[in-house]
C-alpha cells in the first residue's frame, strides 16, 4: 500500500518534471531538471525492487548524461530561441503514439504478478532464482544473467558503446590539430579566440 | 605555464572537487568489483569512474585532465575493453568450450565462472569509462 502511494507520488513528480522541461526556456535549468527526472525514475525503480536498474538510471541518467549535456551547453547559448509557430501535427502524432503505447500495456501482466509467464515458467525466473547461485557462484542474479548466461548479449552492448565512441571520434576528433603547447598557452586566451573567430573553430583546438 | 588559479571564481568548486575525486574513484572501483554481490557492475562503475574525470575536466579545464589521462591512452583503452571481453570468449573456445563459456577457464566450473565474469565486467568497465571520457574530450576540444 505504502509502496503504491510512493510510486504514485514519484510518478506525479516525473510528470511535473517533464512539463517543466517542456516549458523552460533556460536550457541549463532544463538539463538540471532532466537530472532530477532520472533521479526520480531511479527512486521508482528502487521502490519496485529493481536495484540494479535504479543504479544504472542514477549513474547514467542523473550522472553522466547531465554532465555531458552541461558540457554541450558550454558550446551553445543557455536560452532556447522562442518558437514562432505551433506544431499541432507533432502534438497530435505524439498523443496518438502515447495512447497506443498505453493501450499496448493493457494486455501485459500486472506488476509483480506471480502467475505471469515470465514468473511462472520453470525455465525462466524460477530456474535462475533456484540454480544460478550454484551454477555461477555469484549471489547477484542480475550480474550472473548479464555477464554469464547472456554474455553474448552484453558483448553486443559493449560493442555498441564502443562504436558510439568511435563515431563521435570520427565526427569531432578529426578537427584536433597539434599546436605547440607554449604558443597555445601564452599567446592567446582560448575563450576569446574561439568567440572572436567562430568560423575557424579548428584554430583554437589544442592537444 | 598556466596560472595556478586560472578561474578564480571556481575556487570553491575546485577545492571540493579535489576532496571528492578520490572517493568517487574509490566508489567506482567498489561498484566494479562488488557487482557480484550487490547492485553494480561494469556499466555503472565505468560511468562513475568517467564522471570523476569529467568533473575534473569541467572544473579545472580539460587541458589539466589531459595531462592525467591523455586522449591517446583513452583510445587504446576503448578498444582494449572490447578486446578483453571478446578474448575471454575466445579463450573459452581455445580451452574446448563454446564462445563465452567460462566453465572451462579454470579447473573447476565455479572458479571458471568467477574469473570469466570478472574479466568480462572489467572489459565493460574499461570500455565504458574510456568512451565516456573520450566523448567529453571531443566535445570540450572543439571549443577550446
Can you tag this structure with a few keywords?
heterodimer, A: mainly alpha, Four Helix Bundle (Hemerythrin (Met), subunit A), 10 helices, 0% strand, disordered C terminus, B: 144 residues, 74% helix, elongated
What can you see in these coordinates?
The complex is a heterodimer of chains A (207) and B (144). Chain A has 207 residues and is an all-alpha fold. Chain A has a domain at 1-79: NADH-ubiquinone/plastoquinone oxidoreductase chain 6, subunit NuoJ (Four Helix Bundle (Hemerythrin (Met), subunit A)), CATH 1.20.120.1200. Chain A has 10 helices and no strands. In chain A, helix 1 runs antiparallel to helix 2. Chain A is globular. By secondary structure, chain B is an all-alpha fold. Chain B has helices at 11-33, 42-60, 62-68, 71-94, 109-141. In chain B, helix 2 packs across helix 3 (62-68). The radius of gyration of chain B is 18 Å and the shape is elongated. The chains are: A mainly alpha (207), B mainly alpha (144). The interface between A and B is large, with 56 and 59 residues.
Amino acid at each position: 500500500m505504502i509502496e503504491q502511494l510512493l510510486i504514485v507520488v514519484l510518478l506525479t513528480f516525473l510528470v511535473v518534471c517533464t512539463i517543466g522541461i517542456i516549458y523552460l526556456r533556460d536550457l541549463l535549468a532544463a538539463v538540471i531538471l532532466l537530472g532530477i527526472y532520472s533521479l526520480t525514475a531511479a527512486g521508482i525503480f528502487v521502490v519496485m525492487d529493481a536495484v540494479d536498474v535504479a543504479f544504472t538510471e542514477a549513474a547514467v541518467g542523473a550522472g553522466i548524461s547531465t554532465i555531458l549535456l552541461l558540457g554541450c551547453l558550454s558550446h551553445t547559448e543557455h536560452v532556447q530561441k522562442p518558437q514562432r509557430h505551433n506544431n499541432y501535427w507533432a502534438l497530435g502524432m505524439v498523443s496518438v503514439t502515447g495512447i497506443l503505447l498505453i493501450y499496448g500495456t493493457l494486455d501485459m501482466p500486472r506488476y509483480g504478478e506471480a502467475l505471469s509467464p515470465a514468473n511462472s515458467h520453470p525455465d525462466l525466473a524460477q530456474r535462475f532464482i533456484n540454480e544460478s547461485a550454484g551454477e555461477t557462484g555469484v549471489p547477484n542474479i542480475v550480474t550472473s544473467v548479464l555477464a554469464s548466461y547472456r554474455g553474448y548479449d552484453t558483448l553486443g552492448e559493449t560493442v555498441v558503446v564502443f562504436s558510439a565512441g568511435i563515431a563521435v571520434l570520427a565526427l569531432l576528433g578529426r578537427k584536433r590539430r597539434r599546436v605547440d603547447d607554449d604558443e597555445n598557452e601564452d599567446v592567446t586566451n582560448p575563450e576569446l579566440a574561439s568567440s572572436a573567430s567562430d568560423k575557424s573553430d579548428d584554430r583554437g583546438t589544442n592537444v | 605555464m598556466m596560472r595556478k588559479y586560472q578561474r578564480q571564481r571556481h575556487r570553491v568548486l575546485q577545492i571540493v572537487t579535489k576532496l571528492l575525486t578520490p572517493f568517487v574513484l574509490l566508489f567506482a572501483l567498489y561498484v566494479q568489483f562488488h557487482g557480484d554481490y550487490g547492485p553494480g557492475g561494469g556499466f555503472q562503475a565505468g560511468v562513475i569512474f568517467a564522471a570523476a574525470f569529467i568533473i575534473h575536466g569541467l572544473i579545472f579545464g580539460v587541458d589539466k585532465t589531459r595531462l592525467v589521462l591523455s586522449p591517446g591512452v583513452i583510445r587504446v583503452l576503448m578498444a582494449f575493453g572490447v578486446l578483453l571481453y571478446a578474448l575471454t570468449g575466445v579463450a573459452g573456445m581455445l580451452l574446448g568450450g563454446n564462445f563465452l563459456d567460462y566453465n572451462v577457464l579454470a579447473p573447476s566450473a565455479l572458479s571458471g565462472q568467477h574469473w570469466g565474469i570478472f574479466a568480462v565486467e572489467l572489459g565493460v568497465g574499461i570500455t565504458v569509462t574510456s568512451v565516456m571520457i573520450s566523448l567529453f574530450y571531443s566535445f570540450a576540444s572543439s571549443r577550446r
